[in-house]
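User: Sorry, folds how?
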Amino acid sequence: MNPHRRHPFIRIAALVVYFFLYAPIVMLVLYSFNASRTNILFEGFIPSVGPLQMEGSLVTQSPCGAFHWFCELAKNQEVGVAARNTLTIALTSTFVSAIIGTMAALAMQRYNFRIKPFAQLSLYIPIVIPEIVMGIGVLTLFSQLFAIVNNSLGLAGDARLTLGIGTVIVSHIAFCVPFVTLVVQARLQGFDKSYEEAAMDLGANELVTFWRVTFPMILPGVLSGALLAFTLSLDDFVITFFATGPGATTLPIYVYGLLRRIITPQVNALSTIWIGLVLVAVVLLQRLQAREAK
């Protein structure tokens, strides 16, 4: 019996799993080229002949052709604002949570202190509890804190502290830090301290040792945690819904608002672009990790 031969059931099971994983994504991308404005049935691709023409709920001609809904999306200023807010929040929260999570992982991996068991256990609380519970908690915290500060300092009008991009960033940082910490801790499990000891024996201080020895060795774990935090921040809806305020609309919140009115292929076009950007980011990160591993 060939040990490398796979049972047909394993192949069929793998195909079924991949189908259920990626079939919705394929359908989403396909419907971004739909000629129908209702996006309920796929009515075919839009031909690029002549100016824009419509017949009922169908787009029969468009200068952009099958990319008509992408052109319409580019004209939507609200999408641009939401995308800018989403990227600002995601990049900021990822950068800060990567720093805090790496520092926390190093502290809990190398030092023993009285509340270490509680600190380790508390990392799992934001991961385990439902997001809606954390969202309500964040909203309550900011509401009470801002009310105390505004009343104590007598702030009024535009000077009052309110929900906005800042509160969303802080909420995402609190949500992402445990994920980064756990990923970096996993990387530190096999870390050989003899490299640090050798560097310090050769005259390097603690700061130089960290930047020249420790950080390059744990960089793949830090990048993995940062990518996870970036992904979680990009597609987060529940926590953002409770922590957001005027002028801080993100893409998930904007798409939710569109779905409450009518589902158009613009939503699919937006999702297709977002999938492409995330795919490019994942490929670049994998190449960077492969380069660091060599």
